[in-house]
Amino acid sequence: MKIIERTLAFVGLLSLSALFIYALQDAPTDENFEKMLINDYNVYALQIPDDLNFAGEPMPLKDPDIYERMDKELLVNTYWQSNGLLMFKRAKKYFPIIEPILEKHGIPEDFKYLAVIESGLTNAVSPAGATGVWQIMPATGRENGLEVNDNVDERYNLEKATEVACKYLKKSKQDLGSWTLAAAAYNAGNAGVSRRMKEQNVSSYYDLLLGEETGRYLFRIVALKEILSNPDKYGFNFREKDLYNTIPTYQVKVDSTVTDFTKFAEKYGINYKVLKLHNPWLRDRHLVNKSRKIYTIDIPEKGYYN
């Protein structure tokens, strides 16, 4: 009897513990949020949604190869938790800048997730020289009207770089016939994708045999889209205040040489570091502007850094 009583008591304690944990999960308030971090880790096989798509173009998940490749990317990106949480935080800051530009050009909103896998929403620089959130090569930037040199590199300007990405994607869609292929071409180039389609006599990205990077490309985009659209479903827990926010700025027009950006920043109540954080396209401590081109410099509103 004592053994039975002890067993029942133990089961009762487990039940109470489960109810307590459930209560914490059901109400992630500031008071209990830290408690949720303790012993809150499990690894599960994931159920692949039946209706995954990119830009409205369905993913053929009944194909076992497509299913396995999608399963891999969903698992890898779900359980790379630190990176995933950073993507949620940065998306809150940068998606509001990217989304209206995509909409203006008629580019499906799903392409914002292409920027996520290209750079992690950072001003990354690839070994090949692709730069910025959209990973634009120097020649592509210049061909599309960006200034790219040691003094000014507008590939680091998120708004201008997004405009260039939109122009490239629209051209790819026109040449290749689908948004899925246009996304693949952002990685492998229009000519590269077109050549492989002709060599293999297929018309769909999902029927192409491609190299490792381009072969994973769409699956990674769709995985990030699915995860970032459904944080609770994939076990990401955060509050609104945990996310990063866009800092309001006002614009200052400059049409002459700036000899010292440290002194320039101080005129507006900020330091050089803050100036560069908001204007990473300024690549030097001074601005060479013999042509008297008009540049727009973002200055953060007062109260955010001091």
Assembly type: single chain
CATH class of the largest domain: Mainly Alpha
Characterize the biggest β-sheet. Answer: 2 strands, antiparallel
- How much helix, percentage-wise, in residues? 40-55%
Name the average pLDDT: 89
The CATH architecture of the largest domain can be named as: Orthogonal Bundle
- Termini separation comes to 68 Å
Whole-number radius of gyration? 24 Å
Portion in beta strands: 5-15%
**Total helical elements:** 12
The low-pLDDT segments are 1-25
How many beta-strand segments?
4
When the domains are counted, the total is: 3
Shape: globular
Spatial order of the strands forming the largest sheet: 1-2
Topology:
Layout: H1 2-26, H2 30-36, E1 53-54, E2 57-58, H3 64-78, H4 81-104, H5 112-119, H6 138-143, H7 158-176, H8 179-188, H9 190-200, H10 212-229, E3 249-254, H11 261-267, H12 272-278, E4 295-300
Antiparallel strand pairs: 1-2, 3-4
Helix pairs in contact: 3-10, 4-7, 5-10, 7-8, 8-9, 8-10
